[in-house]
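Q: Convert this sequence to structure tokens.
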Amino acid sequence: MFSALTGLRYSDIAKLTWSEVFSDASEHSLRFTQKKTEGVETLPISELACGLLGERMAGSEKVFPNLSYSSWQNLKLQQWCLRAGISRTIKFHAFRHTFATLQLSLGTDLYTISKMLGHRDISTTQIYAKVVDKSKREAADKIKLTL
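A:
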């Protein structure tokens, strides 16, 4: 769920330490080095995402110390999705896609989403715009006038 609320990759969530989490009464953010791009990122996070962090520990401690990624975890995720009525094969990375698609659907501009995902090139993010365009077309086609 943390990935769906932040857009972070598994690799960045797994290595996230408390020294990279900044939180006060009005603002919550992460400042970390992305594993894939090695770029330093500052990512504002929502109150909801911050609530998933749990009790603050020492700076060098991992935020999610028991997080693991395996075929067993993917199987459990798939079973969870099937119970929710989702028949597609879903893996952890799908939460990152969910974040981007939800942000677009809620009106966040492509440039901001690109920065939040840590994409170096906005063309990588433009893939998500096609998903939203398809959803718009499907929504428009739902209303049919019968004369």
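The chain has one domain: 2-141.
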